Amino acid sequence: MTRAERAAQLAIRLPRIYPDAHCELTFANPLQLLVATILSAQCTDKRVNMVTPALFVRCPTAEAFAAIPQEELEALVHTTGFFRNKARNIRAAAAQICKLHHGHVPRTMSALAALPGVGRKTANVVLGNAFAINDGIVVDTHVGRLSTRLRLTRNTDPVKIEKDLIQLFPRPRWADLSHWFIFHGRRRCPSRKPDCDGCELQDLCPSAFQPDRYRLDSKPRQD
Question: Helix (H, G, I), strand (E, B), or coil: what is residue 211?
Fold first, then answer.
């Protein structure tokens, strides 16, 4: 089976397996999603969702995030890890949003990626989930791992993985694809001890029952 054939089958099967797949960060508007996504770096969505309710009450607008003292914001996000850098980036991004975008989160990749602490992954999360704009595909650790195990890419760099996936899946499904992969990665195909016996994609997966076959540091194989 070629990569294109495998991708076509995945595009049919994954929405049937995970019809309710969605962004698991809790948010009510684009600003809240942007902040939550910054906080989610090296942190679980569950932990972020425990922190953000009080945070969003304290800072309901970009102006409030820009004005909150660094020390206070650090205390509010402390349990998400790397809290100093995250607090600094959130304040700086909010200040730039106020200065350049009239307090509204921008709706383009270039403008989002220009914000402090915001890279392509975060921008894709915001565009796809807050604005329903499919400008790219979110590549987190789950998407990267499954893309490798399903042999949809031979690359290890997230940007290159994204380019490979973009060529294989139709644009209208780009945001959905990351949700499907993340749901599957968390529920069936974790880094350690994937549930190959119970996996609904077992027949499509070149790595089934041998998850290290395509380790990122292994020699590429033909398939």
Answer: coil
